DNA sequence: TAGATTGTTAATCGATTAACAATC
DNA sequence: TAGATTGTTAATCGATTAACAATC
């Protein structure tokens, strides 16, 4: 008798496919289309039609038999389901090349991630701004985040510092960590962890290239 | 009677975990350790010991019963298995904020990815260099790549251009595409495709934050 | 009505987990 | 020898695929 009955938890692989559908129907919309069927999506992006149907069943949308889905509806429902219409505030720890690029990437804000500050220990960048976003000394985070209240911590520090910095961010009130380091950090129950290691993806690509 | 008998194909989830083990044992090495057991890794990075054992069984390494693995051996074997000791040449299509960051990230070269050129259509950046890597006009790619022979194409263009640009890169001889756009591109049989959409990872994180 | 599509239910497939044998 | 560890084999779990009923 839990509320799991009402919202079946979507499996992660399915969740990761939804942005593909969104991206494709946005393209269709820009071409003036108004209706799309799952079989049509299936052919274009190389995912089986039954998988698309199954994935969309987790989302609150209903298509019309023999017709398909209304493109505007589908875009709205997917964007809202994926959290792209809300604003989530974030800080970036480690303003090296990747961290700085994330500060500069205005695309992220369109997808609901608003970076409000960077933190680093390098005097050459502390107290400067990148793309109008201030960079502070890491020591100041806990004090500053009492007001700023960033919800998400983006982790782009060297791997050796990853675990320590993540714990520091959590002490400062962060509820989720987006980990770009190759290091597998551990977080307490209740903290969300998203690993995005470019090196792991490189490894998969290299392996498939040789096999 | 195929050679699949000799090299069991490693599942992708397992392949993505191997860099975690590598990262952790490199940390141990930097702390002066010489031996590590899978149970020790398990505790520290929150992966079950049996999964680590299973994952390592795909790799050509053998541990010593009652002792564990030699750290230097494990690092060498993992780095070589993951392709980090080879040099793979790459070009980056789309030198926006993310593309430029990849050109600037010297970390990638340490993991076996050597970016030899950027390509874009924006006159403001074409024929300049970023971090000593030249940026050319996209039109010149096919001609230039006859000599440069980049093996991997990194795709950081706007989603609407993703499919078209990927086909162009493949015509130019690229064997694998590292796709950073949220668009699900289709590639011919035999071309390796690695999707790394930051937005998909954002979506997973947002979903888990709310749930 | 016939046919195309949605969307659910059942079957299959593959990865993870658990149990345990082998080893030093 | 006793105990800790590797590494394999079997059981479980969950996602994908296939079949098909419902619908317009």
Automatic annotation (TrEMBL), chains A, B:
CoA-binding domain location: 83-184
Residue ranges of DNA binding: 20-59
Compartments, record wording: Cytoplasm
Functional description taken from the UniProt entry: Modulates transcription in response to changes in cellular NADH/NAD(+) redox state.
Record-given protein name: Redox-sensing transcriptional repressor Rex
Pfam families xrefs: CoA_binding, Put_DNA-bind_N
HAMAP family in alphabetical order: Rex
Family statement: Belongs to the transcriptional regulatory Rex family.
Keyword terms, alphabetized: Cytoplasm, DNA-binding, NAD, Repressor, Transcription, Transcription regulation
InterPro entries the UniProt entry points to: CoA-bd, NAD(P)-bd_dom_sf, Rex_DNA-bd_C_dom, Tscrpt_rep_Rex, WH-like_DNA-bd_sf, WH_DNA-bd_sf
One GO molecular-function entry: DNA binding
Quaternary structure and partners: Homodimer.
Highest taxon, organism lineage: Bacteria
Record-linked Gene3D superfamilies: NAD(P)-binding Rossmann-like Domain (3.40.50.720), Winged helix-like DNA-binding domain superfamily/Winged helix DNA-binding domain (1.10.10.10)
GO cellular-component term (any): cytoplasm
Gene from which the chain derives: rex
Principal location class: cytoplasm
Residues the record lists as binding NAD(+): 94-99
One GO BP annotation of this record: response to redox state
Coiled coil: none
